[in-house]
Amino acid sequence: MDLSDNLADIVGKVGRSVVAVHGRHRMPSSGVIWREGVVVTAAHTLRREEGVDITLSDGRTVATVLAGLDTGTDLAVLKLDGVDLDAVESGDAGSLKPGHLALAVARADLLGISADFGVIGSVGGPWRTWRGGQLDAFVRLDGGLRPGFSGAALADMRGQVVGICTSALMRGAGVVIPGTTVERITDELLAKGRVSRGYLGVGTQQVTLLDAWIHKMNLPFNSGLLINSLAPGGPAEQAGVLIGDVLIELDGKPCRDTDDVHAALGSASTGQQLQLALIRGGERHACSVTVGERPQRNSCR
User: Fold this and answer.
1) Class for domain 198-293, per CATH?
2) What 3-state DSSP class applies to 245?
């Protein structure tokens, strides 16, 4: 009974700061009052930018204003006024270990608060999503999320919210967006309504380099990135990059896979020049590219 009562107390405590977000047809998603006047939810659950209402724990339905969303980390930030409910007590996702118990707390239907009890499936270091966003830690739940639980709060056994749940970043499994990531993205969305990421405008495919190239250019690695598409008018096309080039270095560092490109762009700012080393026609070729800002993909569709 002690464990059961403790879990119910955690759900009741966290649930006061969990809201239903009416940003799509039929079933609402969940959201969390992360700061005073600020609600965080999963970006992929919003199907419109205006007219997004939320239902609070006391039953009131109030209007919000979308501050911004980031598809890379699947976070959206909504602003609301005149609400005196407390924000959640945030915890550290870095303290989680595989096998730790956790509670997902949602408010996604007319029945009020809902909870899903489970364990942490796996934990890792910083993780780049397939959408190009960077999470400060990889935390996978043991199993998928029930409908409406994207945007829910994930609480540890101390009742602290360690992150936001989403089903959009990994097929068939729930992933936790760590609280430190939520803080960072929330700051940026509140400040400028979007998250800026570097952009070259290339599509690539990893390829094995020919032995002749490796010996001729004295390369200490055997893979590169074949340029198989170029964004019209994008930074790479403007710099003279051609389809069929093989990218081997970016700003003096090896480019063996797409992670190397993301790492280089992660530390680069829009407008900064980067030096590319390419293989073109069996010869080493160099050019300079000016980093652009990745176009914002609007998930409100």
Assistant:
1) mainly beta
2) coil
Structure tokens that stand for 203 in this block: 């599509």
Phi, psi (degrees; rounded to nearest 5) at 87: -75, 160
Pairwise CA distance, residues 136 & 189, whole Å: 17
End-to-end Cα separation, the chain, in angstroms = 46
What is the rounded CA–CA span in Å between residue 128 and residue 257?
13
How would you class 184 by CB atoms within 10 Å of its CB: exposed for 0-12, middle for 13-18, buried for 19 or more?
Answer: middle
Residues paired with residue 274 on neighbouring β-strands, in sequence order = 289
Where does 2-192 sit in CATH, by number? 2.40.10.120
Query: Is 0.85 surpassed by the pTM of this model?
Result: no
User: Which candidate, 35, 91, 72, places its Cα nearest to that of 166?
Assistant: 72
Structure tokens given for 278: 């390419």
Over residues 176-204, the pLDDT tens digits come to 999 999 999 999 999 999 888 888 999 99
Report the percent of the chain where pLDDT is more than 70: 97
E strand or H helix at 284: strand 283-290
pLDDT of residue 267: 62
- How far, in Å, are 26, 175, 231, 264 from residue 257 at the CA level? 41, 24, 19, 12
Q: Which residue has the tokens 């080393």?
A: 277
How many residues make up the chain in this entry? 301
Helices first, then strands: H and E counts in the chain: 5, 23
Question: Taking a C-beta distance cutoff of 8 angstroms, is the pair 230, 239 a contact?
Answer: no
Give the tokens for residue 188: 């940026």
- Of 25, 23, 27, 26, nearest to 40 (Cα)? 23
* All structural domains of the chain with their residue ranges: 2-192, 198-293
- List, in order, residues 6 or more apart from 56 with CB less than 8 Å away: 19, 62, 83, 85
Instruction: Provide the 8-state DSSP code for 50.
Output: S
The number of angstroms, rounded, from the C-alpha of 298 to the middle of its chain's C-alpha atoms is 14
Nearest Cα to 278, choosing from 185, 204, 211, 178? 204
